[in-house]
Amino acid sequence: DVTNYKYLNMKIYITLLILLFSLKINAQVTNKDELREKATFMGYKYYFNNEKIKKQKAIQILLQNKSSEVLVNKYQKTNKLANVFGYSGAIMTGIVGGLVISKMLTHEILIVTDSYKPATTEVIFLILGSAGVVTGFSLKLKAHKQLKSSITEYNNNSQAATIKIGMTNNGNVGFVLNF
To answer: What distance, in Å, lies between the first and last C-alpha atoms of the chain?
Structure first.
């Protein structure tokens, strides 16, 4: 009986070894997590490991990394300030434009010419509004540079090496090493 038991165990071991070596196991080494920004006609698109993500998700990923967190916080503050200046400037400029258009529609003025002298409040709103729009735009550019710097910082200091069993780039299941 003991010899039959050993013989059965040996059959199981040999079968397992044959199965193990007959499986096609693919090992793949991939680079560390990568966050990319791509300029498009209507703004920017963000990709994390070649998967398209929303901007807020990209910011969440950047905030999880200590090296890029400081730059993202600067970006968020600058972006809020840019929105305040930009929107308030656009509203002020829009009020002046609306006033001039309403005066034209009510025939108070037929055409904006040299004979038309805008009210002092219109001039003040136009100057402040234009300054707000220009300031907001320049702050938006600065904020975007800060975000781009944080993405570069993230990609330079990404996570440490990990190994897992998962899908490889060619669609097979295998060992995936991230470093």
So the answer is: 52
Residue type, 9: N
Measuring CA to CA, how many Å separate 97 from each of 34, 108, 109, 111?
Answer: 46, 15, 14, 14
User: What's the 3-state SS for the chain?
Assistant: CHHHHHHHHHHHHHHHHHHHHHCCCEEEEECCCCEEEEEECCEEEEEECCEEECHHHHHHHHHCCHHHHHHHHHHHHHHHHHHHHHHHHHHHHHHHHHHHHHHHHCCCCCCCCCCCCCCHHHHHHHHHHHHHHHHHHHHHHHHHHHHHHHHHHHHHCCCCCEEEEEECCCCCEEEEEEC
Per run of 10 residues, the mean pLDDT along the chain (length 179 residues) is 64 72 51 81 88 92 88 95 95 87 70 64 87 95 94 78 64 63
pTM of the model: 0.62
Angle CA 168–173–179, to nearest 5: 45
Upper half-sphere CA count for residue 80 (Cβ side, 13 Å): 5
